[in-house]
Amino acid sequence: MVTVRATLPGRALRFPWLRGEHFTGLVLISPTFLYAIALLAVPLLAVVLFSFWTQDYLRIDRTFTFVNYKEAWSEPIYQLLMLRSLAIAAVTTVVTILLAYPIAYFVSFHVHRRKSLWIFLITIPFWTSYLLRVFLWKVILGYNGVLNSTLEWLGVIKQPLTFILYNANAVVITLAHAWAPFAILPIYVALERIDRSLLEAAKDLGDGPFRRFWRVTLPLSMGGVVAAFLIVFIPTIGDYVTPRLVGGTDGLMIANMIQAQFGKANNKPLGAALAISAMLIVTSIALLIFWLNRRFTPGQR
Amino acid sequence: MSDAHTPKWLSAYAIGYLVFLYAPVLLLPIFAFNDSAIINFPLKGFTTQWFEGLWTTEALHSAVRNSLFVALTTCTISTVLGVCAARASTRYHFPAKRGIMGLIMVPLVLPEIIVAVSLLVVLIQLGLDLSLWSVILGHVLICVPFSIAVLASAFKNFDRSLEEASLDLGVGRVATFFRITLPLVAPGIISSLLITFTISLDEFIIAFFLTGTDATLPVYIWSQLRFTARLPGVMALGTILLTISLLLLILAEWFRRWSARRSGADLESGTGGLY
């Protein structure tokens, strides 16, 4: 973490190396940096502090206590929601990446002229209202929904499918759609960076298309896959809208509970403890994956 | 790669995937013009009544005004902060650069609910009332990284010798920035404004936590989703929003390409513009 002191102009007078280049750079970055300090770093610290307090109806008791964390980590309901959020986010991330990889591969290796048009086409749907996109999945997956009525009309099914709405499956499908471009883009960028002559070499040395992919393309694109994993996994754990709209009661996640603590349940310190706990878990998983990737993927610096 | 042929399954998959991506979006206009109060197949007939209904909904109009205010303020502030940071990070070296830039970019990988909760806690502790301004504070925080991403590529690509020429000719640093640098990155700035505007206009969670009595558009839409009778109207509204954001994005993309062409960047390698 950086200290605020380092940005103070006064230091430039005492430390000559802060003049010129360094000084101008620091002055220029300082509005944005101070904004991030005041509205990101300080609030995050405030939440940490807040999570050690307690609330008695409307009054906040500022005695330091671990009671919220004890509750957050031991109550079965919070454990369940946390584990379910982790499981849903993990499955969503894997599904999203498995679906995204072939399309990134297709655009990178098989589209020759209109690459940026394809990338643009892929991202367009995601600039429409997030709420409505999630809601429309409810329309698609519902009992009398688009999918069921189409399948019935085609004669594929007699009874409407019920396992696709108001449960964790629906959450996974919806999130896999919502986060698709965030998986496609990093993988695409990684694939674009691959030196094509390596593939030529593998081909000349007698590797078939499958071995070439397995031994050259896939390992070299792992950086993009890991980036995609983190970009999708971290925010999906904290998603509120999707579980609320399509998850039913079996698909609710930790964010719904955090919101409830800040709203109806009116126990804000507990909500803060849940939020911090979720953030700690996510961060440790992210760091673990980052470390594993460095350790085991060849060609990573 | 030298593989001239594309496997059939891969092309088929690409098309199937596009259908999956576009399915929800395509349903929006279909139900917006469908003459039935229930969002369901089979379709009944063509109507524009749902669009007409929007003209007389006062709550919607005030939500639109609130959202425009929030989005316009957010895109202005975050682009100004983005210009400072992008310029500093591409042009200068300074101590703790990685740490500082890292902190600024953190909202990209932070669940939005954490941002919302932390700002809420601070506002409660300070005893401040929630208002559209509290929403703006949160939106600027999450928009700045996007603005920096767009602007950094604009700043990185332009020819620095133009600035040096201006300085050599005796024009001051500040004047050079406003007369040479800024006009050259103007397309990047416009595309940053458009993108941050779009993000703010669509953001729900932060607005949901931090809005006081004034609902923004997504908060209004959220409140409507509970009432079945309101859904066709929501579909009509969504169709209008879809059209507007499409126009804004095409505009942003156009400016980005113009900016890239101006600074001589390779277009195909630059997907970094929007993301």
Model description:
The complex is a heterodimer of chains A (301) and B (275). Chain A has 301 residues and is mainly alpha-helical. Chain A has 14 helices and two strands; from the N terminus they run ααββαααααααααααα. Chain A has helices spanning 10-14, 21-50, 67-74, 76-110, 115-123, 130-141, 146-154, 168-178, 180-193, 196-204, 209-237, 241-246, 254-262, 268-296, and strands at 54-56, 59-61. In chain A, helix 4 (76-110) crosses helix 9 (180-193). The longest helix of chain A is centred in the N-terminal third of the chain and has 35 residues, at 76-110. Mean pLDDT of chain B is 85; it is low at 266-275. The two termini of chain B are 26 Å apart. Chain B is globular. Chain B is an all-alpha fold. The chains are: A mainly alpha (301), B mainly alpha (275). At the A-B interface, helix 2, helix 4, helix 5, helix 6 and helix 7 of A face helix 1, helix 3, helix 4, helix 5 and helix 6 of B.
Summarize the topology.
The complex is a heterodimer of chains A (301) and B (275).
Chain A lengths: L9 H5 L6 H30 L3 E3 L2 E3 L5 H8 L1 H35 L4 H9 L6 H12 L4 H9 L13 H11 L1 H14 L2 H9 L4 H29 L3 H6 L7 H9 L5 H29 L5
Antiparallel strand pairs in A: 1-2
Chain B lengths: L7 H25 L16 H7 L2 H34 L5 H9 L6 H15 L5 H26 L2 H9 L4 H30 L2 H6 L6 H8 L6 H32 L13
Helix pairs in contact in B: 1-11, 2-11, 3-6, 3-8, 3-10, 6-8, 7-8, 8-11
Question: Can you summarize this structure?
Answer:
By secondary structure, chain A is mainly α. In chain A, 71% of the residues lie in helices and 2% in strands. Chain A has helices at 10-14, 21-50, 67-74, 76-110, 115-123, 130-141, 146-154, 168-178, 180-193, 196-204, 209-237, 241-246, 254-262, 268-296; strands at residues 54-56, 59-61.
